[in-house]
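job 3f2a | input accepted
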Amino acid sequence: MQIILLYYYIRHPYNFDKMYNKNNKNNNLLNLKNKISKNKKIVLAPMAGITDGKFCKKYKNLFAIVCIGAYDLDKDSQIASEKIVNRGRKEFLYNLDEFDNIIQQNIMDAKESGAPVSVNVRFKDINKSIDKIKTILQHSDIFELNCHCRQKEITDLGIGQELLKKENNRILKNNLKIINKINNELSGQLNGQLHGSSTPIFLKIRANFISSNELINNLNNVKDYFDGLHIDCFYPNKNCADLDYLMDLRNNFKDKIIIGNNSVNSINDAKNMLKYCDFVSVARCILRDNIEWIKEINNKTEKYIY
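job 3f2a | predicted structure (306 res):
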């Protein structure tokens, strides 16, 4: 019975194909698809101060994608991280002048996991972050903009989850336009396309910070500038993911890759979330070394589906 359920819920069509067929000029998701093992549906989520390259490479051939970060790209966001560390939380702290070497080494280490590497980033001033953005786009498989962090030191800067608000939509759109322009220049696509054969852009977002309707409206205003959504299905005062919120986003962004996240600790959790997304990401269960169920999903997906 468990095998039948896995077959039904894990065999979820890749939206890479839908998006590629919709616009043959948009090759970046097709390139990403070719890097992901078809039998894998579980993503390693970014965890502040934890998921660097060395952490990722401990998990060889386990994940569909590994996410490193969050990494700060300018002084304001780095100062905020220092304040967070000073009150006892983990963050990545480093000399910003050495960022290029640091991030390239971490991406190289993370790729030893055998999975494509997503880099999650934060910044207050994009104009002071452009060189670092270029480096990430040149070396990573996915560029993930952090619209998720809820730590006060970050949100006081108007970034993290604050970027999801309507009043900050103009800032989000401007940042995404600049990132896409850099992306296209690096890939040689300067003929008016938004993407071209370049690095996919994802947004890491949080559910229930604002209503799903408001978030959908705000994301629709920038939908031409991102390829995927990584959704923390945070459910206030509940010990489970808000799958209704996830379903709302899935129904409104069918041409985007969607990674679901939150409270995924077992095969059953994963198959329930995979009804509404392409992948699910995990975090805390990895810290508890709860990974045998991931190996089981990988093996069963390969054996019974592909």
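job 3f2a | The beta strands are 42-44, 65-72, 117-122, 142-147, 201-206, 228-232, 257-261, 279-282.
job 3f2a | closed
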